[in-house]
């Protein structure tokens, strides 16, 4: 399996990292599981931002996975190009999460746009 396909797995796992940060920052650790959605909705500060980063990560993962798979199926792009784009996307997502947690809204929005541009680029390089 190549790097771009492994990056899909990383994109699937990243939201759960954000969930762990949200739960830990909420003071209950990872064991508060009677009403996890209600608990996450009640968070403030860092925990609330981690939860928001989790939701955004869940939203973007399918688009990234689809872009990588379509690019592989079409087969017109070099594998190294797809791998580089995938690593750049994961890097943008890591920065997005860090900037979200740090409450740096402008930088967070900028790297969000970069990530979306990278998703589009999978389709562009496959033409």
TrEMBL record:
Protein's name according to its UniProt entry: MAPEG family protein
Keywords: Membrane, Transmembrane, Transmembrane helix
UniProt key word Translocase: no
Lineage, broadest ranks: Bacteria, Pseudomonadati, Pseudomonadota, Gammaproteobacteria, Pseudomonadales
Coiled coil: none
Subcellular location: Membrane
Annotated transmembrane regions: 79-102, 109-126
Any one GO CC term of the record: membrane
